[in-house]
Amino acid sequence: MALSQSRVRPGLIVEQNFGRNGRPFSLGVEEEFQLVGRESFELVSRIDEILSEVEDEEHEGRVKAELLQSVVEVATNPAGSVAEAMQDLRGLRARLREAAAERDALIASAGTHPFSLYEHQDVTDRPRYRELVEDMRWVAQRELIFGLHVHVGLDSPDTAIACANAARTFLPELLALSVNSPFWQARPTGIASTRTKVFEAFPRSGLPPAFSSYEEFELLVERGVKTNSFADYTFIWWDLRPHPRLGTIELRVCDAQTRLESVGALAALAQSLVATLAEAFEAGEQLPVQPVTLVAENKWRAARDGLGARLVDLEHDTERPARDALLALVERCEPAARRLGCEDELDDVERILARGSGADEQLGIYDETESLLAVAQWVAEETVRGL
């Protein structure tokens, strides 16, 4: 991800920096964390206090507020490898743990909190967030959810659009692997990724359309801004979107992960998948684009059942277990992972398949203890384990 010299075409308004980094398939990872009380494990509105603890040159611009004051977001520096990004994230989690402790709080990472209510959360006092609540009202007020975003850098806008179109097909596999939000408003929902269904109430969310060209994406953004539909393309919250200002495509479909090694597995899968698709496109292959309705069916199955889902193999129109679909995807990505040096992290996908998803682990604790407090405590402890 690079922010150097940019190209802005006459008449168009999307700044783009594809290919400016110099490192192929550079990586950036963003995590959204819960701020919880040390004893109650309930969400607490302390983002400004936490930010005051990390006001230093190393973390400037990398630890940020979000819509609600009980959420804190961190972002890695642009990394050349998954290992580099993971080292950065380990340091960020450790620094946040220390900052939270100074304010009698803890950090926790999962797609939703087991029992805290959105009605009890304070909105962050920033113009962007005040305007969001004014514009979207109850839809924004209930956005008590936490995600994991992975950016992968690409060399050209044409490659970015082709990869985004093709990678859309595999978003359900990434979701099935990452499901980590089986509770909402103090009850089990029966949905492995409740976060996904809550967020789909947002406008301009869900699966992205396929674009015939980068210029078509630019034109969409230009028309949206011109008609006061949104201020800029960062108000388009698709599960996967081009991020031209950073020179990346951004995969946004995943729930926040409790275990740090799960973040590494998802980052490796995302990076090696994008690299696999980009290398095929640049070699002259036509990347297939599947109908959005069928991809959406797979996404629904993944959100509902996680690793227990049966996903449709859209190349052959047959069903298969989500675990088999993920193993096939890992196999497809292994050559790129070896070239990128993330094969060890990619191997962790199979460990998640054996252990179960974050949603599986949370539900296991709830079944054993019948206590949502025990679930919240486990999430907080596991988020910082080994740091």
List strands and helices in order, with pairings:
Layout: E1 27-37, H1 47-53, E2 63-65, E3 71-75, H2 82-102, E4 105-108, H3 127-136, H4 138-141, E5 147-153, H5 157-167, H6 171-178, H7 194-199, E6 205-206, H8 214-226, E7 237-238, E8 240-243, E9 248-255, H9 260-282, H10 292-305, E10 310-313, E11 318-321, H11 322-340, H12 343-355, H13 358-369, H14 372-383
Parallel strand pairs: 6-7
Antiparallel strand pairs: 1-3, 1-4, 1-5, 2-3, 5-9, 8-9, 10-11
Helix pairs in contact: 1-2, 2-9, 5-9, 6-10, 6-11, 9-11, 9-12, 11-12, 13-14
Brief synopsis:
The chain is α+β, with helices and mostly antiparallel strands.
Report on the structure:
The chain is of the alpha+beta class and 387 residues long. It has a single domain (27-383), classed as Creatine Kinase, Chain A, domain 2 (2-Layer Sandwich). The protein has helices at residues 47-53, 82-102, 127-136, 138-141, 157-167, 171-178, 194-199, 214-226, 260-282, 292-305, 322-340, 343-355, 358-369, 372-383, and strands at residues 27-37, 63-65, 71-75, 105-108, 147-153, 205-206, 237-238, 240-243, 248-255, 310-313, 318-321. β10 (310-313) and β11 form a beta hairpin. It is globular and about 60 Å long.
> What is the succession of H and E elements?
EHEEHEHHEHHHEHEEEHHEEHHHH
- Identify the CATH class: Alpha Beta
Task: Give me the count of strands.
Answer: 11
CATH architectural category: 2-Layer Sandwich
Radius of gyration: 20 Å
Q: Categorize the overall geometry.
A: globular
**How many separate helices?**
14
CATH fold topology: Creatine Kinase, Chain A, domain 2
What proportion strand? 5-15%
Biggest sheet statistics: 7 strands, antiparallel
In angstroms, what separates the terminal alpha carbons?
26 Å
Q: What fraction, in percent, of the residue positions are helical?
A: 40-55%
Mean pLDDT: 93
| Unreliable residue stretches | 1-12
Count of domain modules? 1
**Helix/strand/pairing category:** alpha+beta
